[in-house]
Amino acid sequence: MLKGTNITKCFGGLTALSEVNFEVSQGEIVGLIGPNGSGKTTLFNVISGLHKNDSGEITFEGQRITGLPPHKIARLGIGRTFQIVRPLMDLDLIQNVAIAVLYGREEINTPRLARDRAEEILNFTGLASKADHLPGELALEDRKRLEVARALACRPEIILLDEVFSGLNRKEIEGAIHLTFRIRDEYGVTVFMIEHVMKAIMGTCSRVMALHNGVKIADGDPEDVANNPEVIKAYLGAAYAER
Amino acid sequence: MVTPDSKSRRLVFWVLVLFIALAVFPWLGIPVYFVSLLFTVFLYVILATSWNIIGGFAGYLSFGHVAFFGIGAYTTAMMINGFDLSPLLTIVSSIPAGVVSALIAVIVGYPCLKLRGPYFAVITLCFAFVVDLGVKNLDILGGPEGLWLKSMDLPIDIIRAIFFEVMMLIMIFSIALGIWTSNSKFGAGLRAIKEDEEVAQTIAINAPKLKIEAFALSAFFPGMAGGVYAYYLTYIHTDIVFDMMISILIVLMALFGGGGTWLGPVIGAVVLTLINEGLSTFVRAEFARIVYGCLFIGVIIFMPNGIIEFFKRAKGVPPG
Fold it and tell me: Could you report the predicted ipTM of this complex, rounded to two decimals?
């Protein structure tokens, strides 16, 4: 459904992504791992149109999306969250989500109906009781849930989750894993997620890709990727890979 | 028991009474000073309310909004002189003035709205200077001499009353636009852009298009108001209709009342115009400027979200 071919992205002299190929199929939960600075978020930014790639091509459901503005890409059905949460700070939760409903793919154009829909989505993400709070009053876990709610409100086909699990405690991670499955199963949304928390990766992903210095070094079963010498080398150094 | 419905019906009733009272005001033989004072209030309500669409809702602080007012004034002046229009046609002739302003906003907005924050503020400021200088140097527009409008063959009282009514009508429409914006999908999109434009785009908001629409709308009513104002003055000059002070006043008024709400700029414009005029007339103009400056500093420090928000919070109503 989402496919990238030879994606390259440079920032000045730094090659953030180099000839990266990837594919995500409908209904999958795919993980994207890699050490800090390996290009994971850059890849998401390229997919969602916030950055333009220098070469390569991305297609979504057979349609070329490379070079399209971000709002068109969102319109086609690619939603995303941000690693450093970016709620609309002066608007309460329900407004945050209702705006996404209004401009999303459901064609709900009346603010009142959008609010009703937003309430359902907040309910789905477990934020219903805080609907009239401002994002600033939320703890990190709930802010991450708000990111997810806002992205879901556009009714995407695929959602790019950028480190939704980082910074959460053990119990919160359980909740987030549960939510990830429900996104796929109840909303029918394919999930492509960047993650560092191995527990979350192992618990949710059917497939994992690993990036290192902008190059894809592994792609496959989570267990295999986690034990791949290249991946261990990238995270821990060559000495550990040989053991 | 007061239900929300009967409460809002009562509100509508009083607003109607207010507008009818305002509408008959110039026909009551009240001293001209008060009529023209009210006319000025209307003008600033239009300017601040319109500015609010791009500045308040979308967060793009235009510091050159006087340009649209002036462009409207010159458009109407040229039309009057070119086609011999009667003041009875003010409503009709101010519409093209608004359209020209809006079109120029689209052309100027296309490149300028790619800039954000202070850069947008500075470039709009420059835009106003460029238009001012351009008009000063175009002989066809009267150049540095200004433009005299053809005199009108009606009693001055009637003419004044017509302008008053038309200005009021434009004001009502501009307030209606503000109310609509604050309750519509359009306004919601602008709010998202103000908060975080990148995020707005990732939730499928076509930010570039929405910003240009907002800028054009916010230029339309000032253009119309400029058209009426040109008639009213019968003589226009770049120093009057492109006065940078007006640009600054518009921003002050909207932010003083509360940007991003429809009522804020209305209150801001009414209060500040009355203070300004009152002090200039009954004390001295310099004193008015000092009071203005102090007021502005006070507002920025103590009520950064405008007086509406301040009083709401004082009453314990949550913001939003």
Answer: 0.91
Contacts of A89 in chain B (CB under 8 A): 195
Query: How many angstroms from the chain centroid is the CA of residue B191?
Result: 20
Residues 6+ apart with CB under 8 A from A64: A57, A58
Contacts of B318 in chain A (CB under 8 A): 132
When divided into structural domains, chain A yields a total of: 1
Q: Does the distance separating the beta carbons of A102 and B189 come in below 8 Å?
A: yes
Cα first-last separation, chain A = 38
Q: How confident is the model over A24-83, as pLDDT tens digits?
A: 999 999 999 999 889 999 999 999 999 999 999 999 999 999 999 999 999 999 999 999
Residues B219 and B198: their CA atoms lie apart, in Å, by 25
| SS3 assignment, position A90 | coil
Cβ within 8 Å, pair A92-B320 = yes
For residue A58, what pLDDT is reported?
A: 96
Structural domain span for residue A187: 2-241
Distance from CA of A161 to the nearest CA of B (A): 13
Query: With a cut of 50, which residues of chain A have pLDDT below it?
Result: none
Task: Select from A41, A92, A103, A159 the residue whose CB has the most chain B CBs within 10 Å, as the one to mutate to test that interface.
Answer: A103
Please list the alpha-helical segments (H only) found in chain A: 40-47, 70-76, 93-103, 111-124, 140-153, 170-187, 198-204, 222-227, 229-236, 238-241
- For residue B243, give the 3-state DSSP assignment: coil
Write down the pLDDT at residue B320: 42
Instruction: With cut-offs at 50, 70 and 90, classify the pLDDT of residue B1.
Output: very low
CATH number for position A119 = 3.40.50.300
CB contact under 8 A, A132 and B318: yes
Q: How far is B207 from chain A (nearest CA, A)?
A: 8
Cα distances from A141 to residues A82, A177, A178, B227, B260, in angstroms, run 13, 12, 14, 55, 30
Longest Cα–Cα distance of chain A, Å, equals 61
| C-beta atoms of B188 and A74 within 8 A | no
Enter the tokens of residue B120: 């947008």
Domain boundaries, chain B: 33-242
Provide CB contacts within 8 A for B9, sequence distance 6+.
none
